[in-house]
Structures are given as C-alpha cells and as structure tokens.
Amino acid sequence: MEQDWESRVKGLLKAELKRREVTYQDLTDKLAEIGIAETPENIANKISRGKFSAVFLIQCLDVLGCNTIHLND
C-alpha cells in the first residue's frame, strides 16, 4: 500500500517537470534561487525512490510555478 503512495507522489512531480519541460539541472538551479542546495543526481534519486518530504515537494512545485495540483484524474 505504501508503494502506491510513493508511486503517486513520484508521478505527480515527474509529470509537472515534464509538462514544463524542466530538467533535473533546471530544477536544481530554480531551487538554488530560493536557497535550497541540491544536485541533479540527488534530485533524481529522491524522485526515483518516491521518498521525499512534503516540504521538498512544495518547494519544487513552487519554483516550477505550479499553483494547483490535481490528485485524481
């Protein structure tokens, strides 16, 4: 059951990156602008595992300019 939640949150963030054509390097740069130090590799690992904090998710969505998320299709 936990796996489903991890897949869901991973898919949500990956979809927003793809929708905006943002690479992990781009995301790293955008996070750096708000004082969050990450590497593209670290971001790739976090997203791949689907295990990251809600704070990280909100930080990413904020720098991507995502103001609304849809949890269901």
Q: How is this structure best described in words?
A:
With 73 residues, the chain is mostly helical. The chain has one domain. The protein has helices spanning 2-19, 24-33, 40-49, 54-63. It is globular and about 35 Å long. The protein starts with a helix and ends in a 10-residue tail after the last helix.
Q: Give the class from helix and strand content and strand pairing.
A: mainly alpha
For the biggest sheet, the summary is: none
Return the string of H and E elements: HHHH
The coarse overall form would be: globular
Which radius of gyration do the C-alpha atoms yield? 12 Å
The domain count comes to 1
Number of helices: 4
Point out poorly predicted stretches: none
| Through-space gap between termini | 19 Å
Q: How many E-type strands?
A: 0
Average pLDDT score: 92
- Helix proportion of residues, in percent? 55-70%
Beta-strand portion reads: under 5%
Please sum up the structure shown:
The protein is mainly α and 73 residues long.
Summarize this structure as a short list of keywords or feature phrases.
single chain, 73 residues, mainly alpha, 4 helices, 0% strand
